[in-house]
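User: I'll paste a sequence; please echo it back and then give the predicted structure.

Assistant: Echoing your sequence first, then the prediction.
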Amino acid sequence: MGKLTVFALRAVIVALLAGSVFVQAVMVPLLARDLGGSGEGVADLPRIPILLIVVLGFVCAEIVLVCVWRLVTMVRRRTVFSYSAFRYVDLVTGAFTGAALLLWALGAVLAPGEAVAPGIVLLIGGAGLAVLGVALIVLVLRMLLAQAVARDIEASQMQAELDEVI
């Protein structure tokens, strides 16, 4: 992976992390105020569960960003084909799975009553399914990483044997 690519990816990760912190610090309190307002239908929504789901969703995104940062660092150091990479891949899978569960929980919280249209709840459920699909893709990539690590270890052993013969 080239230096420019790593720099660009890290710049994007930093921007996304900064945006996430901004949303948690500024936008979530504004959302809390709006949910507490006297707007028709909005006052019927459960305020605390919605805010908790939103904040935990951003935490899931932040976990993914930090793990990708660590994996990119491992790629630059040429240590990504090791067992230590599995920890970060597993965290990414868990974060995406958690995000899918949070989306479904948000849909369940918004479903009762007339405040939110059923189509919106259905879209949230579909988004949860899409996020779960991403978690499954990462799981498949983890299996590929496991095969690559096994091949790397096998190649190292064969190289050591060859060095002994020579």
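The chain has a mean pLDDT of 90. The two ends are 33 Å apart (CA to CA).
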